[in-house]
Amino acid sequence: MNTLTSDGHLATMSKQTRSSTACRPAATPARHAVLQGVTMKPANVAEALVALETVAARLRERNDPRAVFPDVYAVITRRVKEAVVDGRDDRFLEPAWISRLAGIFCEFYLQALEASLDGRSAGIEAWDVAFRCNAGSGTAAAVHALLGINAHINYDLALGLWQNIVQHGAAQDARLLRRYRHDHDLVNEILAEAMPEIFEILSRRYGCPLARIATFTKDVQRAVSSTVLFMLRGWRDRVWDDLLCLLATRSEADRRAVLAGMNRHAGKLARMMATGNGALRAGEPLFRTAAVKLALAA
User: Fold this and answer.
1) Strand extents, DSSP E, 180-228
2) Please, what is the Cα angle at 263 between 199 and 180, to 5 degrees?
3) CA-CA distances (angstroms) from residue 154 to 5, 112, 166, 240, 251?
4) Would you state the pLDDT for residue 296?
5) Fewer CB within 10 Å of terminal CB in the chain, N or C?
6) pTM of the full structure
7) How far lies 35's CA from each of 31, 75, 285, in Å?
8) How many helices (H) and strands (E) does the chain have?
């Protein structure tokens, strides 16, 4: 049976899961090393950024590939903080709301990471697939990043939006929902602006062969960035549809059904990426050749 937990996550309530939920296991050495002192419930974007940067640095020290996603995620979070807290620009219509969303959003990731560090299921298929790939070797950093981004956007984001909107008492406020949608879409611009920095991190910090191919020339990088951004925008458009479905529900059973659909969709994408990872490794020479040809054609 599936149920909605107190923080909004979907949990598979088997007898074993109910037992582990009722009696949370003691911190494992891995969890202690990575999450000790980390704010697990960030209240805003500033606290979320500190948590992400701390976790990424500690995972890097352990040569743990789980460092890739929070490293990339921190780039976006920092740029959102610069906009809504540091006053770099005034593009967001509801900066306090977007800051709170960043805190909720980060909390969901930290919960999934905590489960992984404990060797437990996160209760969300896309995160479980992502962390299983992290446990193996030979996965390119770009794939680690995409697996995390898939889970965080295609499952966590609609749930975070829903929780934030409900907390602000705006579920039936059409005017505020339009302003929130504007700010949600504005993050697409921040994603586009952050792409060069993200490629740099994947290439230089993690030695990702796919990122190096993608940045072979500026023309190649623009083409790859456009493709990735097109995919992310499509995901984020679907997220808003999922949010509207959650807002329209009138019972826990209805919410469970929407969340189950989100879980299936994100999980399917994760399995496709994990399956395709082997093909990416095998096809790397072909991709490199294609990048050279694209550069010459430009």
Assistant:
1) none
2) 65
3) 18, 14, 19, 10, 22
4) 46
5) N
6) 0.86
7) 6, 20, 39
8) 13, 2
